[in-house]
Design brief:
CATH architecture of one domain: Up-down Bundle
Number of strands: 23
CATH topology of one domain: de novo design (two linked rop proteins)
CATH superfamily of one domain: NADH-ubiquinone oxidoreductase 51kDa subunit, iron-sulphur binding domain
Helix content: 25-40%
Radius of gyration: 28 Å
Protein name: FAD-dependent oxidoreductase
Shape: globular
InterPro entries: DPD_II, FAD/NAD-bd_sf, FAD/NAD-binding_dom, NADH-UbQ_OxRdtase_51kDa_CS, Nuop51_4Fe4S-bd, Nuop51_4Fe4S-bd_sf
Number of helices: 24
Strand content: 15-25%
Distance between the termini: 25 Å
GO molecular function, one term: oxidoreductase activity
Largest sheet: 7 strands, antiparallel
CATH class of one domain: Mainly Alpha
């Protein structure tokens, strides 16, 4: 860990040079601050929690000027302390940099900084001058020009917020909310489309990591970020003609620059979208006859209408790409075939299309009434969309606690089951499913059996008749802090049901990737990749989404699609992975948890989130019609106004210029 020379962090003053009389305190627990990029030391770091200087030769005035310059640039202009104060502070610091500082000038800077911190309406204004105020109070002797300022590009500044960092795709959430408040849903949608094309889909089924990180959780309720995303996407649908066209692509590459995307699910569509925008010629090879992957067959229509999904997967063709349907890797072509056909790179977005067995006695997938979770949802999809026969009678038991399990139990109710049971070996609080899905299932009448696990499948004449269940109890936490469970001896009991759905996990179908393709799997049965570049064990082949990460979320899959497109672009145009300063800064923030443990210093009025209109439980149990209904423009504005704009600026000063820019 790099040694701090001096600074103020979390209110603790440190001076390891022994130049000022302060109580000796250990260095802040900052890991990874030795170098920003290879061979380029970090000389100083400035954030909302203070500043630390690692190189005592750093010009502190210059560092603070650059930090406030970015704060002034990012000010939304809606409150005077930040709109006026940040530029005035920046300009005053520029005078000091130029050797024209004075005691009176510093008093004015301090007064402006205090006013920003105490009266700004959002966290950007409240926090941007924290480091400056700490320097004025504790290290005034360093606030004089130290000769020629360092070049401005020796370092970078990064603006973010907790919701942005929590989002796998790093969508600028406060920015698209700002545009809603400005009455510009079109510009709001544009912010989202920079990261992925499936805004309306994500606005319906996203698991809302951003809302979990929302600082309003400490006051009342998080901002309804997901419903606002759906609002802006639905506002644009069908109103202004096609959103996407080949005209969006500034430069098309030669026809030889072709990339094959295997799999038309969220990861594949996202990768194809970003490659097309970069000018590549892209073909998407999909085993089914329609695009969408597990988002189409695995998410029921009451959550995601299929016309909404199709409108967004069609983006690939609107941008000039092509789908090749009915083409399955391992059955209709190999990776060797793709390279022989002239593709320069291949992206595998295969998903996890095979269910996981329960692993209990007498389990036989061929039994009538036995389904894996994803097979059951595929049957539901084919029944609802194409009229394929599927009728449920009697009682259905779904084993699992994730979102797939919730989709299974809620779909079983709609298909006529007399009773639907959810069997889960841990507590309800431990369920990985979205809390809203759990509550919806309970409202619709699903019966929960927690701390219960199957031990044997019961069958007669080739048909499911029930399971033996055993009670579970909690034990000690594991290495990750999750409380373990174990069976309670002597608590076995028979449980009668007519259908069993094993919704405990999914895996990659290994038949799609024979050893001859040169793409290895890891110990979990996923495609082995370099986590930074997503390249597999075969040159020119990249992978992302569920097949590389294990069964995850739609937003994770789309994020990996973007990351893969960037990596493929680097591979084909540059021959190596480029350095991305924003990615490096995010890693520093995440690994050091720099956005956690905050408290509010400015009072915030309670204002609870809007009620999202829904079909009643009685109505939705009888139909696959979409449960959530759209909100009005007035409701969207009101919800957007709850955003606290929790932006903050982070700046690093480095020894040499940062490759890839200063932001």
């Amino acid at each position: 860990m790099v040694r701090v020379s001096y600074g103020v962090w979390d209110g603790v003053v440190r001076d390891n040079r022994g130049l000022i009389p302060v109580e000796i305190a250990p260095d802040p627990d900052l890991e990874g601050f030795e170098y920003f990029n290879d061979g380029n030391p970090i000389r100083a770091f400035i954030g909302d929690r203070g500043f630390v200087v690692f190189d005592p030769e750093v010009d502190l005035v210059d560092a603070l000027w650059r930090h406030m310059d970015r704060a002034a640039e990012e000010s939304c202009g809606k409150c005077t302390p930040c709109r006026v104060g940040a530029p005035l502070i920046r300009d005053a610091l520029a005078e000091v940099r130029a050797g024209r500082g004075s005691e009176e000038g510093w008093q004015r800077i301090a007064a402006l900084a205090h006013q920003m911190a105490e009266t700004s309406l959002c966290y950007l204004g409240q926090s941007s001058a924290n480091a400056l105020l700490a320097a004025i109070e504790h290290f005034p002797e360093h606030l004089k020009p130290g000769g020629a300022p360092a070049p401005v590009d020796n370092g970078m500044s990064y603006v973010t917020a907790p919701c942005v960092e929590a989002c796998p795709s790093k969508v600028a959430v406060p920015r698209y909310i700002d545009f809603i408040k400005d009455g510009r849903p079109d510009l709001s949608l544009g912010v989202i489309l920079r990261k992925y094309p499936m805004a309306a889909t994500c606005g319906r089924v996203c698991v809302r990591f951003c809302e979990m990180a929302c600082r309003r959780n400490a006051i009342d309720e998080p901002v309804g970020i997901k419903i606002l995303k759906r609002y802006v996407a639905d506002q644009q649908a069908g109103l202004h003609g096609p959103i996407f066209s080949p005209d969006m692509i500034p430069t098309r590459l030669p026809d030889s620059m072709r990339v094959a995307v295997v799999g038309g699910g969220p990861a594949g569509v996202s990768c194809a979208y970003h490659l097309l925008l970069r000018g590549y010629h892209v073909d998407v090879l999909e085993a089914a006859e329609v695009a969408g992957g597990m988002a189409r067959s695995g998410i029921p229509s009451y959550r995601l209408p299929k016309d909404v999904l199709k409108a967004e997967t069609d983006t690939v063709e609107q941008l000039g790409g092509h789908f090749r349907f009915g083409q399955a890797l391992g059955r209709d072509f190999t990776i060797d075939d793709l390279f022989e056909q002239g593709y320069k790179a291949v992206f595998l977005g295969l998903g996890c299309a095979k269910g996981t067995l329960l692993g209990v006695a007498d389990e036989d997938p061929s039994l009538k009434g036995y389904f894996s979770g994803i097979d059951f949802l595929l049957e539901v999809h084919n029944h609802v969309e194409y009229g394929a026969p599927l009728a449920l009678h009697g009682e259905v038991a779904v084993v699992g606690g994730g979102n797939v399990a919730m989709d299974c139990v809620r779909s079983a109710l709609r298909l006529g089951a007399s009773k639907v049971h959810l069997i889960y070996r841990r507590t309800e609080a431990d369920m990985p499913a979205d809390h809203e899905e759990i509550e919806a299932a309970k409202q619709e009448g699903v019966i929960f059996h927690c701390l219960t696990n199957p031990s044997r499948i019961l069958s007669e004449d080739g048909r499911i008749v029930g399971m033996d269940l055993i009670d579970m109890r909690q034990t000690v936490p594991d290495k990750k802090g999750r409380i373990g469970v174990e069976p309670i001896p002597g608590t076995e009991h028979a449980f009668r049901c007519d259908v069993v759905v094993a919704a405990i996990g999914q895996q990659v179908d290994k038949q799609t990737l024979p050893a001859s393709d040169g793409v290895q799997l890891d110990k979990w049965g996923c495609v082995a990749i370099n986590p930074q570049t997503l390249v597999t064990t075969r040159m020119g082949v990249f992978a992302g989404g569920d097949c590389a990460s294990g069964a995850s979320t739609l937003i994770h899959a789309m994020a990996m699609g973007l990351k893969a497109a960037r990596a493929i672009d680097d591979y084909l145009r540059h021959g190596h992975a480029r350095f991305f300063p924003r990615t490096r800064m995010r890693r520093l923030l995440n690994e050091n948890k720099l956005l956690s443990g905050e408290c509010f210093e400015v009072p915030v009025a309670h204002q609870y989130r809007i009620d999202i209109p829904n079909l009643s439980p009685d109505e939705r149990r009888r139909t696959f019609e979409e449960v959530e209904k759209p909100i009005t423009a007035a409701e969207a504005y009101r919800e957007a106004a709850r955003c606290l704009r929790c932006y903050r600026v982070y700046s690093v000063v480095t020894e040499t210029a940062v490759p890839g820019g200063t932001r």
